[in-house]
Each structure stands twice: as C-alpha cells, then as structure tokens.
From TrEMBL:
<feature type="binding site">
    <location>
        <begin position="98"/>
        <end position="99"/>
    </location>
    <ligand>
        <name>ATP</name>
    </ligand>
</feature>
<dbReference type="GO" id="GO:0140662">
    <property type="term" value="F:ATP-dependent protein folding chaperone"/>
</dbReference>
<dbReference type="GO" id="GO:0005524">
    <property type="term" value="F:ATP binding"/>
</dbReference>
<feature type="binding site">
    <location>
        <position position="91"/>
    </location>
    <ligand>
        <name>ATP</name>
    </ligand>
</feature>
<comment type="similarity">
    <text>Belongs to the heat shock protein 90 family.</text>
</comment>
<feature type="binding site">
    <location>
        <position position="321"/>
    </location>
    <ligand>
        <name>ATP</name>
    </ligand>
</feature>
<dbReference type="GO" id="GO:0051082">
    <property type="term" value="F:unfolded protein binding"/>
</dbReference>
<feature type="binding site">
    <location>
        <position position="83"/>
    </location>
    <ligand>
        <name>ATP</name>
    </ligand>
</feature>
<keyword id="KW-0346">Stress response</keyword>
<keyword id="KW-0472">Membrane</keyword>
<protein>
    <recommendedName>
        <fullName>Heat shock protein 75 kDa, mitochondrial</fullName>
    </recommendedName>
</protein>
<feature type="binding site">
    <location>
        <position position="172"/>
    </location>
    <ligand>
        <name>ATP</name>
    </ligand>
</feature>
<dbReference type="GO" id="GO:0019901">
    <property type="term" value="F:protein kinase binding"/>
</dbReference>
<comment type="subunit">
    <text>Binds to the intracellular domain of tumor necrosis factor type 1 receptor. Binds to RB1. Interacts with SRC. Interacts with SDHA.</text>
</comment>
<comment type="function">
    <text>Chaperone that expresses an ATPase activity. Involved in maintaining mitochondrial function and polarization, downstream of PINK1 and mitochondrial complex I. Is a negative regulator of mitochondrial respiration able to modulate the balance between oxidative phosphorylation and aerobic glycolysis. The impact of TRAP1 on mitochondrial respiration is probably mediated by modulation of mitochondrial SRC and inhibition of SDHA.</text>
</comment>
<keyword id="KW-0067">ATP-binding</keyword>
<keyword id="KW-0999">Mitochondrion inner membrane</keyword>
Length: 545
C-alpha cells in the first residue's frame, strides 16, 4: 500500500454532495441503477478494448453485488475496464458529467422548492452513492497493461484520498458503508426488487449474493425472426404481470430518424369495461436500462391499452432528462404513435375478422384517439369500424371499404346516429337511402357523434348525417318516388307546408319544406338535436326509453 494523497473536492462537487446527502427517501434507490449502469459501461468498454488490444484480465464479464446486513455494507464489483490514477481523479473528483452539471443548473433555476424527484430524473451518477453512504471506497485497477491498483475513499465531507493498493483485481469494486437510516439497502429482498425494477435487462449478468437476478432476456434487442411466439408470450406475461396471451405482437427496430427498439403487445382483454381506468403499460428504456416505468409521456393516453418496452439509444441516461421531456420524448412519441397506428392498419388488412373482433373490445380507445389526437386523425380514421346498411348485424366495415363501395356520383359518406340497427332500418331517414341503394353507416355509440364531428371527413369525402338538411338535398336521394295519381301538386304541397308552418308556429319549427323523397312517411324532422342531446333531455325528463 502506497502513500495516501488527500484532495479537496471542487466547490460545485461539494454542493452536489450536499444536495444528494439530503435527498428524498423515494430517490435513494436510484443509486443501485447508477452503479450497475457504470459497471455495465465499464464491461462494455473492456469488451471493446479486448477486440483490438491485449488486456490484463480474463475474468467473466459480469456484475456482482454483495450485501452484509451486520456491517451495513453494499458492495458492487465488476471486472471491467477499471481506472488509472488520472482517470480516478478526473472521473470521481470532479463533476464534468453533463448530467450532474445540468442537475445543478436546474436546481439553481428552480430553487429548492421543486426538488421533488429531480435526482431520480437526472440520475446524478456515481454521486448518488452519497444518498445512502457515510463512507465510500472505490478499489480500481485499469485493464491497460502495467496498471497499478488504487483505493479512493471519502466520507463525502469535502475531501477524498487516493492511495496505491495491493491485491486489487482489474476492474472496479465499490464499497458503501450505509447510513443508519439506509440500512435497508443491505437487505437482499429490497435490492433484488430494485435491480429487477431498473436493471433487469442489463446486458451482463448481475449476481446478488451469488444468485443471478436478471435472467430475463431483453427480447426487444433481438431481431424479429429470432424470437418465437412462445418467447413473446412469456415476455409479455413477465412485463405486463399478466396471465393471458397477447392477441397482437409488434416487434420492430429502426435507426432513423431515431434509434428505437421496441416490443409492444395488445392483451386479450382490458379492464375498462369493468369500470377501471387502465394505466399506461409501456416503459421507456435507454440501452436496456429503465428510464421511465409505465411512462405517461411516451405514448398518447388513448394507447394506454398497450404493454411493452420502447428502448431508444438516443435517450441519454446521463444527460439531463429535462431536455428529454421537451424534445426527444416528443419526437419519440410522435414516431411511435404513427408506427403503432400504421401497424394496426396492416394487421387489419392481413386478417379482418381478427381485427374486427379486436375492435369490438378495444375500439373505444381508438375512438377516443379520433376525438383527441388531431395529428394522427387520418391514421386513426382508417382504424375505425362500424355497422352499416350493407353489413349484416354484428359485422363491421371500414371507411375505406365504404368509400370503395359508394356510387360514383355520391359525394358524401352518410351515417346515422342510432341506438339500434332495427331503429335505423325502420327509420324514415333511411328510406330514401335504401330506395337509392346508398349505404348508411350505423353509429350506435354515444362517443361516435364526437368522432364524426371531429373527423368531419375521410380522405377528402365529407361525413354527413343521414338526418341532416345536407343529406336531404343530395340529388342522389331525390329519385325514389314516382309520382302517383293521388299526389298533391306542387302548389297544393306548398300551401300545406305553409299551413303547417303557421299552425305549428315559430317556437316549434324553423321552416317547413316540400320534399318528394319520402315514400311511406308523410313528414320527417330535420336538423333536430343530436341523439346524445336527446338522451340527455330524456334523462332530465325521467322518461328513459
Ligand atoms: P457517467 O456514467 O454519466 O459518466 P458517473 O458519475 O456515473 O457518470 O461516473 C463518472 C465516471 O466514472 C464514468 O464516466 C466512468 O469513467 C467512471 N466510472 C464510474 N464507475 C466506473 C466503473 N465501475 N468502472 C470504470 N469506470 C467507472
Ligand atoms: Mg453513470
């Protein structure tokens, strides 16, 4: 063991140490993730180095954590690249890291009032050990040939010391003497749960007191054709904490415009029909390390029925997560949303029956999207399904299929908001449509009214209510009725209309017009309040139908 050198921490490091030492309880567990990430980085660097140079180690590429509850110790060791004396001073003595820097900047700007969870968001790296430790010792030896071993130690109070040390293995070993109030971090049960939460998919085996913890493979990093359906099933059950099977599986990787690897699943069922609001189910990772569990910002809320993982290397683990919030995350969300919607569309085209069944259960989410997500409204519109006058009862059609079937001269897509198929078929409003073979979509859901109001059109073709004045004036619908012998003349009809208008008065009707399109009904009301409105009125009058 060589001579001990004592160094002062830089002022800003002292500040950071001060802050982390007083961290909130909920933030403390982050230190495990940070140390594991550093160890994994060091192993990765060693693997890189070994590809080109000879190194002084042949130890397995793994991470070992051992706990000692009696001594209140947390120890983590890797046989990675290690650090030279210079690296030790540079890396652990200063806060050159962008993460810690922007963390301090953020604190400066916001004051201490909004400190909540900020450490967790930024991931202050190695310094996070001071949230839980009284004294930290780092034993390290660089893998570069001829390197010596060192021991770096501090109580976090302003100075650290470095000394040469014997019997140091290549790599790094960090020993944390836990504070009295942090002794739970020497508990195997607690650390096991924390590793599983944040570091379950780290690319090197993590042993906790000699048992491997992270045995589940990160499926999303593999190529699509390397993963079997059964592996997906197991993985889905694992991450979604579920017992059913996914009905759809989406697995994809891309490098541009962002680097993304992702697996997403649609479960067999969702719980919202039981009146339980579903929480988001997709977690954000960066290089296999958890960044945001069940992330709220990663996908729009209406896709909350999805389960899975999105891993993006462009999300920096170390750099300010605040930037991530505003910028990369928004881009990632936009990309993922459009990817998911296009994927669903292709699945629908591959197997209509399967998709329609899915839609009956999950269509409400897509309808919610069609009402709220302006940016992806076209993609969402393609995914909607309705019954129509040309489908059987219980069968569904898409707007695209409607468009293909419609008559050449037909300039609108017609729909009727109706509680039941039978009402629609017997409705005076659909009579002229039937007679002229014009298809009408039957919209049974209360939310459908908002959907069509929001969409307004589909691929340039207007969506028009079959019971609207606009529909009544469509020339396509005028030809149904042949004039039979007993019909009123135009003049007679006009004076009847005038009489009705005068008799009913301005409070009851706005206008009474002559129409030749009805065959079996004497009159219809146009431009009445919407069914949703009507339902509300009925409820208020206590006359539920
Ligand atoms: P970051 O990981 O963002 O660089 P950290 O504060 O976590 O910041 O670590 C600072 C630096 O210390 C790392 O960049 C690395 O050079 C060095 N370091 C930390 N842990 C290890 C380790 N286990 N082995 C080798 N070097 C390490
Ligand atoms: Mg780090």
């Amino acid at each position: 063991t060589g001579e001990e050198q004592v160094y002062e921490f830089k002022t800003e490091t002292k500040r950071l140490l001060d802050i982390v030492a007083n961290s909130l309880y909920s933030e403390k567990e982050i230190f495990v993730r940070e140390l594991i990430s550093n160890a994994a980085d060091a192993l990765e660097k060693l693997r890189h180095l070994q590809a080109t140079e000879t190194t002084e180690t042949d130890k397995p590429l793994e991470i070992r954590i051992s706990l000692d509850q009696d001594k209140r110790q947390f120890v983590i060791q890797d046989h990675g690249i290690g650090m030279t004396l210079e690296e030790l001073n540079d890396n652990l003595g200063t806060i050159a890291r962008s993460g810690s820097k922007s963390f301090l900047d953020k604190l400066e700007k916001d004051g201490s009032g909004s400190r909540e969870n900020i450490i967790g968001q930024f991931g202050v790296g190695f310094y996070s050990t001071f949230m839980v430790g009284d004294r930290i010792k780092v034993y390290t030896k660089s893998a570069k040939p001829g390197s010596k071993g060192y021991c770096w130690t501090t109580d976090g109070q302003g100075a650290y010391s470095v000394a040469e040390a014997d019997n140091v293995a290549v790599g790094t070993k960090i020993v944390i003497e836990l504070r009295e109030d942090c002794k739970n971090f020497a508990s195997q049960l607690d650390i096991d749960a924390i590793i599983k939460k944040y570091s379950n998919f780290v690319g090197f085996p993590i042993y906790l007191n000699d048992t491997e913890v992270n045995t589940v493979e990160p499926l999303w990093t593999k190529n699509k054709n390397e993963v079997t359906e059964d592996q997906h099933k197991q993985f889905y059950r694992f991450i979604a904490n579920a017992w059913d099977d996914p009905q759809y599986t989406m697995h994809f990787k891309t490098d541009a415009p962002l680097s993304i690897a992702s697996v997403l699943y649609i479960p067999e069922r969702h719980m919202e029909m039981m009146g339980e609001r579903q929480e988001p189910g997709v977690s954000l990772y960066s290089r296999k390390v958890l960044i945001q569990p069940k992330s709220r910002g990663l996908l729009p809320d209406y896709l909350r029925f999805l389960k899975g993982v999105v891993d993006s290397e462009d999300i920096p683990l170390n750099v300010s997560r605040e930037l991530l919030q505003d910028n990369i995350l928004a881009r990632l969300r936009n990309l993922m949303t459009s990817r998911v919607l296009k994927w669903l569309d292709s699945e629908a085209k591959k197997d209509q029956t399967k998709y329609n069944e899915f839609f009956l259960d999950f269509g409400q989410f897509l309808k919610e999207g069609a009402c709220t997500d302006h940016m992806h409204k076209r993609d969402l519109a393609k995914l909607l399904r309705f019954e129509s006058s040309k489908t059987g009862s219980g069968e569904l059609t898409s707007l695209e299929a409607y468009q293909e079937r419609k008559q050449d001269k037909q300039e609108a897509i017609y729909y009727l908001l109706t509680p039941k198929r039978r009402y629609a078929e017997e409705s005076p409003y659909t009579e002229a449509f039937k007679a002229n073979d014009v298809e009408v979509l039957y919209l049974y859901d209360t939310v459908d009214e908002f959907v069509v109001n929001h969409l307004k059109e589909f691929q340039g073709i207007k969506l028009i209510a079959a019971d609207s004045p606009e529909a009544a004036s469509d020339p396509l619908l005028q030809s149904s009725r042949q004039q039979d012998a007993g019909a009123l003349s135009d003049d007679q009809a006009k004076s009847l209309a005038d009489w009705m208008q005068n008799t009913l008065g301005a409070d009851a009707v706005k206008q009474v017009d002559v129409s030749r399109r009805l065959a079996t009904y004497p009159a219809i009301v146009l431009e009445h309040e919407s069914p949703a409105m009507r339902k509300m009125m009925q409820m208020m009058q206590g006359s539920a139908k």
